[in-house]
Amino acid sequence: MEKVVFVGAGSMAEAMIQGWIEQNVVDATQIYITNRSNYERLDELSLKYGVNILQKKEELFHADIIVLAVKPKDGKVAMESISSFIAQNTPVLSVMAGISINAISNLLGNRPIARVMPNTSATIGMSASGVAFNEDVNEDLKKQYLQMLDAIGIVIEVEEEKLHAVTALSGSGPAYLYYLLEAWEKVGTEFGLSKETVRKLMVQTIAGSAAMLQQIKEEPDVLRKKVTSPGGTTEAGIQALESHHFNEAIYQCIKSAEARSRELAKGE
Ligand SMILES: NC(=O)C1=CN([C@@H]2O[C@H](COP(=O)(O)OP(=O)(O)OC[C@H]3O[C@@H](n4cnc5c(N)ncnc54)[C@H](O)[C@@H]3O)[C@@H](O)[C@H]2O)C=CC1
Ligand SMILES: O=C(O)[C@@H]1CCC=N1
């Protein structure tokens, strides 16, 4: 991979850039970034990571891979602005939520396309990504794509249609966990613990529970029951979650996010 061009240099682009550089997948000198208007942002990333700023669109012609990392609402304009500057077979990797492979090939022409749904933990090589490929991605390129995605976490190939669900679950997932932590910190401090103490305890609780699920091959409900002593504190807590319709809230959360991904796909 000689030249990787990022179209859109926001938070997801930064997460991938940082992940790829740190995991030695792509050298910073091989990365080029471009944005619509925020040139300060380009300077910031260039200074921070040593990546190049794309000077003119003609340079896109020599790209080995183009990463589309603009917001879905900006996708059409961004693709239209580059379509006449990219070579016929240059592969595209898109992280835009909801924008279908079909929509991408309609604007950029038939070419190898990978649609990826990573999450921001790519920054530290811990993304949980879903990916779907079109038929133009041959086995070699698929391997290369998977290697790149593997370097920023784990990656699972799914049917394109299922990317809406992946987006709602693991794409947005970090935000749900941060939101949960915010709620824990709020209540913990109300009980007189410092925010720092609650954070330390609960971040370790999240990390420990995730590691248990990864290392001890037991179902979550089995692990949950091991925590829940009859008549004890956990049971009281879970009963409160149930009476406040926890399952319904989670169901609606994922359903709404999945539906939003579908709306984005229709350009709404
Ligand atoms: N933030 C996240 O956790 C995740 C985001 N995504 C997807 O990644 C994409 C980017 O999201 P973020 O990085 O969060 O957004 P962001 O708003 O931080 O970055 C988007 C960047 O695109 C640039 N841009 C807009 N129009 C452009 C154009 N026409 N040409 C070139 N650059 C243009 C903007 O200046 C901005 O720097 C979105 O499509 C989102 O669905 C996917 C997975 C997770
Ligand atoms: O909120 C969003 O639309 C993007 C997609 C998944 C995470 N962030």
Question: Could you characterize the architecture of this molecule?
Answer:
The chain is of the alpha/beta class and 268 residues long. The chain has two domains: 4-162, Rossmann fold; 173-265, ProC C-terminal domain-like fold (Orthogonal Bundle), CATH 1.10.3730.10. Helices cover 51% and strands 13% of the residues. It has eleven helices and eight strands. It has helices at residues 11-22, 39-49, 75-82, 101-108, 139-150, 163-171, 173-190, 195-215, 220-227, 233-243, 246-265; strands at 4-7, 31-34, 52-53, 65-68, 92-94, 113-117, 127-133, 153-157. It has an eight-stranded mixed β-sheet, with helices on both faces. α4 (101-108) links the parallel β5 and β6. The longest helix has 21 residues, at 195-215. The two termini are 35 Å apart. Residues 97, 167, 171-172 line the site of (2S)-3,4-dihydro-2H-pyrrole-2-carboxylic acid (A1CAB). Catalyzes the reduction of 1-pyrroline-5-carboxylate (PCA) to L-proline. GO terms for molecular function: pyrroline-5-carboxylate reductase activity. Its main location: cytoplasm.
